[in-house]
Amino acid sequence: QVQLVESGGGLVQAGGSLRLSCAASGRTFSRYAMGWFRQAPGKEREFVAAITGSGISTYYADSVKGRSTISRDNARNTVYLQMNSLKPEDTAVYYCAARSGINYSSQLQAPFGYDYWGQGTQVTVSS
Question: CB under 8 Å to 101, separation ≥6 — which residues?
């Protein structure tokens, strides 16, 4: 059982940076792979980044690769998403999600199959 709470969203100008945080409750945080997804109005929820339970492997959507970094601190039960060089098209509600078990990278890059979701944090990038 995991509860997730995102924070760190806000309004930023194009080219700026934000660091999103996701705090998790539970005693088996390291067993969960963690993912970040985003959803803009009128669009489907899309994959942004994911990280395995150990933090050894990370995965990124092509749209953010090179501009974003996902990381986790298992001692703090927290996962982060550092976003740089933000663009207006990055505007969306960003969600943190947790997935248990052993998963292939392709599974971590899809929203279905994740067991727990946070309520989201709004990121707005102005031009």
Answer: none
